[in-house]
Amino acid sequence: MKKIIAALLLAIAAFGAAAHPIMVHIPYAGGAPAQLALLSDQVDLTFDNLASASANIRSGKLRAIAVTTSTRASAMPAVPTIAEDGKALGLGRFDINTWFGLFGPAKLSPELTPRFNQAFVEALNSPELKARLTAPMAENAASTSAQFAAFVKGELAKYRQVVKASGATVE
Predict the structure, then answer these.
(1) Which of 19, 30, 78, 88 gets the most CB atoms within 10 Å of its CB?
(2) Are 119 and 134 in contact (CB under 8 A)?
(3) pLDDT tens for each residue of the chain, 171 residues long
(4) Measuring CA to CA, how many Å separate 20 from each of 38, 40, 48?
(5) Helix 112-124 vs helix 145-166: angle between axes, to the nearest 10 degrees?
(6) Structural domain boundaries of the chain?
(7) Are 94 and 68 in contact (CB under 8 A)?
(8) HEC string for the chain
(9) CA nearest neighbour of 43 among 52, 33, 53
């Protein structure tokens, strides 16, 4: 059996390792087929990101049970975090994010990095892009290059532990 590593699979693995629920992983080719399975009662729950699930959440077809981040989503402040709802299960440190970042080649000129970062942060902070991020319930987390590098380093360390605990391999 091939083991696929993806952010949502790692969220499920982290949740399973922490909470020990009886869950079976059913691989789907993306969020839309997984949501279709949920909407048609083929599965009981899915882990998905807000951007993918937001339309069905807003229409009332799906109900958000909890968010996987350490803090509540600003777009849905009434929805608790897994850490909040899972304290009895020992999930107080549960924190899985879906994030996007801007990367360049390793040999990128050191003078260009701050210029690219500044342009990217300015774009993220523009009223037009902020408005476009609101519809899919995405949150802006613009940072400096150094902050982003530290964040990525922390994410790699976190997911290294999750991957090891899950037994997943790259084929």
Answers:
(1) 19
(2) no
(3) 233 334 445 555 665 555 555 667 788 888 888 889 989 988 888 888 888 888 888 899 988 888 888 888 888 888 888 877 666 555 557 788 888 888 999 999 989 999 999 999 999 889 998 888 877 777 778 889 899 999 999 988 888 887 887 777 777
(4) 22, 26, 19
(5) 80
(6) 7-166
(7) yes
(8) CCCCCCHHHHHHHHHHHHHCCCCCCCCCCCHHHHHHHHHCCCCCCCCCCHHHHHHHHHCCCCCCCCECCCCCCCCCCCCCEHHHHCHHHCCCCCCCCCCCCCCCCCCCCCCHHHHHHHHHHHHHCCHHHHHHHHCCCCCCCCCCHHHHHHHHHHHHHHHHHHHHHHCCCCC
(9) 33
- Which amino acid is present at 97? N
Beta bridge partners of 81: 67
How far from 93 is each of 16, 63, 70, 97, CA to CA, in Å?
14, 23, 7, 13
7-166 belongs to which CATH class? Answer: alpha beta
The identity of residue 122, as a single letter, is: E
- One-letter amino acid at 137 equals M
